[in-house]
Design brief:
Ammonium transporter fold; mainly alpha; 274 residues; 2 domains
């Protein structure tokens, strides 16, 4: 199994099968949380191994489609709970479960995006809190204040801080400059709207916590060939859905992104596909 397939799995979090994007994601996590970086790498690696074991098509594995949900499970688990043998084991099991859910749905012709990660992540959060797993206690490795749009881009992959966000943007540009511009545009637009419309607590606006679904949605719609109007409307929709999850006291994860992508896919046809 190639390192490139694992790195592409990390890049596929942003719908980009590019090893350079995956390397940027790991770098962003490393400068903000080394346990989350370990979790992302372990999750991507374990899920990619699992995809080969269940004979997922080799072209899908090579494109990183076996690993990206596992990468998010790993990063999210070790961003929420302290790193330990127990949580490392949870990362491996959760990554394999997310990969399996993705494989089953894909065989049915459904494009799941990060839905398997979301389901597994919610389960891990519930079980972790119910069983008293110690919370993560680390802070950013390199804390450089806040630049909300860059903070938002970083938070898609459970990284924090503007340096991490800038590294992700560079990684997106490796694969597709349009994706990098969409991420910046989506995150900036969400931040500006949140400044004017009181959808989120001030702290979530200041540290980018309100905008990460908007950033990911803008990229997802851009790289799947949607028009600028659809991208703008979808980004606003993701922001509104994220606000709804927050108001209900629920961990949104990337659920608003998935819901918008499904909704747009059901209602429109892309101009081009990737």
């Amino acid at each position: 199994m190639s390192l490139r397939a694992t790195l592409r799995g990390l890049g596929q979090v942003w719908l980009l099968p590019h090893a350079g994007t995956g390397l940027a994601v790991i770098s962003a996590l490393a400068v903000s949380s080394w346990p989350a970086a370990i979790g992302a790498a372990l999750g991507a690696l374990g899920a990619t191994f699992g995809a080969r074991a269940i004979r997922m098509p080799s072209d899908a594995i090579d494109a990183g489609l076996g690993g990206f949900n596992g990468a998010l499970v790993g990063a999210g688990t070790l961003a929420a709970f302290a790193i330990s043998p127990i949580t490392l084991g949870i990362v491996v099991v959760g990554a394999l479960l997310a990969m399996g859910l993705s494989a089953i749905a894909s065989r049915g012709g459904m494009r799941v995006f990060t839905a398997p990660f979301i389901l597994v992540y919610w389960l891990i959060l519930a079980l972790g809190h119910a069983t008293g797993l110690p919370p993560a206690t680390f802070g950013p490795t390199l804390a450089l204040g806040h630049v909300p749009p860059l903070d938002a881009i970083a938070q898609v992959v459970f990284a924090t801080g503007p340096l991490a966000g800038a590294l992700v943007v560079v990684g997106l540009a490796f694969a597709d400059r349009k994706a990098a511009l969409a991420a910046i545009g989506g995150a900036t637009g969400a931040w500006l709207v949140a400044l004017v419309v009181p959808l989120f607590p001030a702290a979530a606006v200041a540290d980018g916590g309100s905008g990460f679904n908007a950033a990911l949605t803008a990229v997802g719609l851009a790289v799947t060939g949607r028009s600028p109007l659809i991208i703008a409307l979808g980004t606003l929709g993701a922001l509104g859905l994220h606000a709804g999850f927050a108001a209900a006291g629920l961990a949104a994860a990337t659920a608003p992104f998935v819901l918008v992508m499904w909704g747009v896919g059901a209602l429109t046809r892309p101009r081009a596909t990737r």
